[in-house]
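Form 7-S
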Amino acid sequence: MPPIISIQNLSKTYAGGFQALKTINLAIERSEIFALLGPNGAGKTTLIGIICGLVNPTIGSVTVDGHDIIRDFRAARSLIGLVPQEVMMAPFETVWASITMSRGLFNKPKDPAYLEKVLRDLSLWDKRDAKVVTLSGGMKRRVLIAKALSHEPKILFLDEPTAGVDVELRKDMWQVVQNLRASGVTIILTTHYIEEAEEMADRVGVINRGEIVLVENKAELMRKLGKKRLTLQVGERLDAIPAALSAFNLTLAGDGHELVYDYDTQAERTGVATLLGELSKSGVRIRDLHTTQSSLEEIFVDLVQGPGPQP
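Output:
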């Protein structure tokens, strides 16, 4: 089955000469949760804006479920729901009026039962008659999600959806996202809460300086790029790392009661077995040991702080 979003050779240069996107090629699969990560100014919002028809590309093509976003704009846009970073709504409109109007903009027939379900799923039903201006920041962001879902889109873009939202509301919203994915909706999200991407996403794309640095299945990405840390608890406190172990780049931690060894899981030899042998030879008794895997955040930081694409 073809991807629901196909981006080919896409570039964007603004009038002042700034090139925000450089030859983007990307396919988003149906019913997946795709996390697009990148530092501020990397091009995330520009890319989303082009797919949603809010920004014109300079070069390249984008199709949404087979519809070209320029030649067949209405059909493409009707498939997309967008939750922007900025909260922009008519302040004195009620929640119900706001989402009803959003549905009408896409020429969808009235369906109060569907809109009620959306509001209930987002814990907004009790606020349906409240004016937007009276709502908290977290509730306003929920209304944005309700508006984006009002016309029953196949694709939902979430651009920093939980910014300014408290932990409880954030968990509720991610449950809604999981339910949407289960119903067949494709979710594309950007977030500064990388732990959310680590928990939620099926695939991760990293964009830096207007270029896609990497696209990978989340588990495979962590397997390929993640490093492991071996923490060894020693039987007796060490004042310094024994000279015989200097080649292993160990770190002394835990007030001298721990030795920390970072290693690449993909290396031909991790060095763990050799290290354990040298520890025994040096008379260092190991009381306990455990390993931890790099987090997605650590991998992301390494990617965007590395050499990366050049301007």
